């Protein structure tokens, strides 16, 4: 007498399907896209530019180290340390990765010129 069938409960308990899962995962996917566009992509571009700058260091360039020392490159071998003159007759060895900036680019010195 007091028991009546609850027809509305059947619709609530039924699984929603793929549309509900998609709607729930959409904000997470949107956040991942925003992070990639605003953080990871510019960071990758800066890293590529830094690597290109470090690989292009040649003898005669004026460089600034990460410690703030300014000097002129006297010896640069690809993939190895740099020899930098920071004052007359004072040369130090630096790891390429510790160069923060290249202030002035110069033409590489050609030591193979014939003496006239």
UniProtKB/TrEMBL annotation:
Protein name, UniProt field: Sec translocon accessory complex subunit YajC
Transmembrane segments: 21-40
PANTHER family the UniProt entry points to: SEC TRANSLOCON ACCESSORY COMPLEX SUBUNIT YAJC
Function, as annotated: The SecYEG-SecDF-YajC-YidC holo-translocon (HTL) protein secretase/insertase is a supercomplex required for protein secretion, insertion of proteins into membranes, and assembly of membrane protein complexes. While the SecYEG complex is essential for assembly of a number of proteins and complexes, the SecDF-YajC-YidC subcomplex facilitates these functions.
Oligomer and partners: Part of the SecDF-YidC-YajC translocase complex. The SecDF-YidC-YajC translocase forms a supercomplex with SecYEG, called the holo-translocon (HTL).
Similarity field: Belongs to the YajC family.
Alphabetical keyword list: Cell membrane, Membrane, Protein transport, Translocation, Transmembrane, Transmembrane helix, Transport
One biological process term in Gene Ontology: protein transport
Gene Ontology CC terms, in alphabetical order: plasma membrane
